[in-house]
Amino acid sequence: MAIIIELDVMLAKRKMKSTELAELVGITPQNLSVLRSGRAKAIRFSTLDAICQHLACSPGDILVYQDET
């Protein structure tokens, strides 16, 4: 997939555990794990907004486009 999810990087920079973020955002730790691993096929804007709010970042800090060619 051309979109790389760097959520682990932001979690490490903020010294936050994924379980803590999942609770703050209002999603299950399993769903956050799917997102962190890059297996997610979609993300709701409301979820992305909440993640960015709690990590004090922008979507571009989490989602990176990488050309596959």
Brief description of this entry?
The protein is mainly alpha-helical. The chain contains five helices and two strands.
Outline the structure in words.
This protein starts with a strand and ends with a strand. The chain has 69 residues and is mainly alpha-helical. 58% of the residues lie in helices and 9% in strands. A two-stranded antiparallel sheet has the order 1-2. The longest helix is centred in the C-terminal third of the chain and has 11 residues, at 45-55. It is globular.
Tags for this entry?
69 residues; mainly alpha; 5 helices; 2 strands; globular
Largest sheet: spatial strand order: 1-2
Quickly give the structural class: mainly alpha
Order of helices and strands: EHHHHHE
Total number of beta strands:
2
- The rounded distance between the terminal residues' Cα atoms is 11 Å
Helical segment tally? Answer: 5
Overall shape: it is: globular
Report the sheet with the most strands, covering strand number, pairing sense and barrel closure: 2 strands, antiparallel
* Averaged pLDDT: 94
Q: Unreliable stretches, pLDDT < 50, 5 or more residues?
A: none
Based on CA atoms alone, the radius of gyration comes out at 11 Å
Beta content: 5-15%
Percent of residues in helices? 55-70%
Fold topology:
Elements: E1 3-5, H1 7-14, H2 18-25, H3 29-37, H4 45-55, H5 59-62, E2 63-65
Antiparallel strand pairs: 1-2
Helix pairs in contact: 2-3
